[in-house]
Amino acid sequence: MFMDSAIQSVFFNDKNRSAKMKLFFAALFPLFTLLALGIDSVSFKEIYFDGREVTNILAIIYFSFFFWFSDSYLRKLMFVMVFLSYIGELIFCTLLEMYHYRTAVIPLYVPFGHAIVYASGYVYAHTKWAVSNDNLLKKYFAAGFALLFLSVGIFLNDMFSLIFGVFFFLLLKRKKWQNLYYFIAVCVIFIELAGTFFQCWKWVPKTFGLIAATNPPMGAVFFYAGGDVLLVKIVGFWEKRNHQSLNN
Q1: Residue 157 DSSP class
Q2: Which of 74, 126, 134, 221 would disulfide-bridge 70, Cβ 3.0–4.6 Å?
Q3: Global pTM?
Q4: In whole angstroms, how far apart are CA 153 and each of 29, 141, 149, 157, 165?
């Protein structure tokens, strides 16, 4: 009986410690983003040296620690996201040329960065505060994003965000307005603003040569959200296969 209680206590403490570390890395996300992208910036290169490799190493290390302290499900999401985001980069950057990086090559840190963005939004969405204020947050998020898309569309002529902002809301409606996608979208907007500010990448002024867009367009969150939906389906299928294997 004593041994069982001791084991449960150790398990609970380890689980609690992991939860705190996940929150720590998620909370550190904005600062890490500014540091990593600042080192890869054009200005850093002009003043010091090309910091791309440093940023690559920092992103992989940060991802590794975040991954290590995550639970099994989040680990699967992060792992798959690395590969899924690289495919997305090949489609949207290389094939469709919706944006381009400061070099011709897609940086190594980008797929790991996407996984960090997703994991951070995931952790935020599953905090006690977010869960307990779920309904209220849905209202504020919906109003805030609607105002954002309309503002950039009207004042900055960002037709891209107006169009894909509508698709973003349609997608969220299908996902029952889960705050998870809003939290991830906030992280996406932050990293997009930081990346374009430091000139790590730049969105083209006319997507597909037709749709006017700012740099960065806020409507880009739709493509991230679409990728997130696909990610959850892939991991869900993975877990289902694992469960079937264990039962056989």
Answers
A1: -
A2: 74
A3: 0.91
A4: 28, 18, 6, 5, 10
Buried b (16+ CB within 10 A) or exposed e, 122-156: bbbbbbeebeeeeeebbeebeeebeebbeebbeee
248 residues of the chain, pLDDT tens digit each? 444 444 444 444 567 778 899 999 999 999 999 999 999 999 999 999 999 999 999 999 999 999 999 999 999 999 999 999 999 999 999 999 999 999 999 999 999 999 999 999 999 999 999 999 999 999 999 999 999 999 999 999 999 999 999 999 999 999 999 999 999 999 999 999 999 999 999 999 999 999 999 999 999 999 999 999 999 999 998 888 777 766 66
Q: 106: helix, coil or strand?
A: coil
Distance CA(67)–CA(6), nearest Å, equals 27
